[in-house]
Specification:
This protein has 13 helices and 14 strands. The chain has helices at 29-55, 60-65, 81-84, 91-100, 111-126, 137-146, 152-155, 164-171, 173-183, 263-273, 275-279, 287-296, 300-314; strands at residues 102-107, 187-196, 204-207, 221-223, 236-241, 252-254, 325-327, 333-338, 343-345, 355-362, 366-368, 374-379, 382-387, 394-397. The chain binds 2-oxoglutaric acid.
């Protein structure tokens, strides 16, 4: 490390890659052709536009980022435990959240009830969620054909739209009131999922999310109409442990306060929107392997890790002051955090499972999937398009929601 450089090694501790992710990756002839075509385009850009930019002193990445965005969280809710009792957050908890973008762990469900819920979820998953899939029949068939039906992380998404028991969890005061303290009286869940980490599962590498674009160029959620909402406040995640969680079976990890700097998310979006431009900032000898890994790599962990390394190579001061915390929890405990905080989770090196329920929660001014008719699901057997008509929102508290959002009726 050179003098003055920031030591990011703490971000990699406990996140070692299991060998070279490209080992054993065999591409078909059309895939190989696509990789060499992309590498050639990157080379051409570097030798033409790139050279001109260097001559003019232009850094395309710095230009795209337009400086370091500094986000702020200001709680919109006014209910507080000291005055209103119940399960509202205390003044101190709200202040902690505004500073760190994360609060908890705190008890949400009694431990026995959370464990029983976890067992019920696993049983339902064994029964293939009784055939329910909010993405529609095409994705349900594709889940079965690709083996993803066996993965709760995929097949369990949006299941509160079908299961009264999950719907009721989202409407319990223990769940809604902390959000009312942060968001105000009207609280909406726009998506739910489970995070299952079976024995031997890899960790989840550090990532940030506010608009949830993933491989799309459009925002899945954004401030509706002319509302101004800081991206750090666009949505908060409730991560509720349904089994005991420790560092050795996959605790969640967060850098509190890192939501202020969103360059990781924005540069990840640039890779999707303008891959040739983004790649042309890499040393030429690693371009083909990086394209191969990001396009055809066998697991998300290594892709996200490679992306993080690329972003650090461009923004050496990123998360400079961030402390990393892990969040061991007993079943029934949970935390609330802004997903713009850089976060991930440890690997599960134990013979025990690790199951969590995550609700993505927002306020009445957020437009969800506005202007979208279809989305794309990434499956190992290829990407499959699906309608977004079934991806409805749940009113957790209050009555108001953004006008264009599709709202669900309670399942029976
Ligand atoms: O539970 C995990 O392993 C990861 C959770 C996560 O990335 C999220 O809630 O956004």
């Amino acid at each position: 490390m050179r003098a003055g450089e920031i030591d990011h090694s703490r971000f990699f501790e406990g996140f070692e890659s299991a060998g070279d992710p490209l080992d054993g990756l065999h591409l078909s002839p059309p895939e190989r052709l696509l990789v060499s075509l992309a590498a050639s385009l990157v080379h051409v850009r570097r030798e033409t536009v790139g050279r001109a930019e260097s001559a003019l002193g232009i850094d395309p990445i710095a230009r795209y980022l337009g400086g370091r965005a500094t986000h702020e969280i200001v709680a919109q809710g006014c209910a507080r435990r000291e005055r209103d009792g119940g399960h509202y957050l205390t003044k101190d908890q709200v202040c902690t959240f505004e500073r760190d973008g994360v609060v908890g762990p705190f008890p949400i469900l009694p431990r026995d009830e959370a464990l029983a819920l976890g067992r019920w979820v696993r049983d339902l998953h064994e029964r293939e969620w009784d055939g329910n899939c909010a993405y529609g029949a095409r994705i349900h068939r594709a889940f079965k054909a690709s083996g993803m039906m066996r993965d709760i992380n995929h097949s369990g998404q949006y299941q509160a739209l079908f299961q009264p028991k999950l719907w009721q969890v989202l409407r319990r005061p223990e769940v809604t009131q902390p959000f009312v303290s942060l968001l105000g009286p009207d609280v909406i869940c726009w998506r739910q999922q489970f995070f299952d980490k079976p024995p031997g599962a890899q960790g989840t590498f550090w990532h940030q999310a506010s608009r949830f674009r993933v491989i799309s160029k459009k925002d899945r959620i954004r401030p509706g109409g002319s509302t101004a909402i800081d991206p750090a406040m666009l949505q908060y995640t409730l991560w509720l442990a349904l089994e005991d969680v420790s560092d050795d079976n996959g605790s969640l990890r967060i850098a509190p306060g890192s939501y202020r700097d969103d360059r990781l998310e924005r540069l990840a979006e640039l890779i999707v929107a303008e891959p040739i431009k983004a790649m042309s900032t890499l040393p030429s000898d690693v371009v083909a392997d990086t394209v191969k890994l990001l396009r055809y790599g066998p697991n998300e962990f290594d892709k996200v890790r490679a992306l993080f390394q690329w972003v650090l190579s461009r923004c050496g001061d990123l998360f400079a002051d961030s402390e990393l915390r892990s969040y061991p929890m007993k079943a029934g405990e949970g935390i609330i955090f802004t997903s713009l905080n850089v976060h991930g989770s440890y690997a599960n090196t134990t013979p025990r499972g690790r199951l969590a329920f995550a609700a993505r929660v927002t306020g009445p001014h957020t437009a969800v999937y506005e202007g979208w008719t279809k989305d794309t699901y990434i499956l190992p057997t290829g990407n499959v398009d699906h309608s977004v008509a079934g991806l409805k929102c749940i009113q957790m508290a209050g009555e108001r929601h953004y006008g264009g959002n599709r709202m669900a009726r309670a399942p029976e």
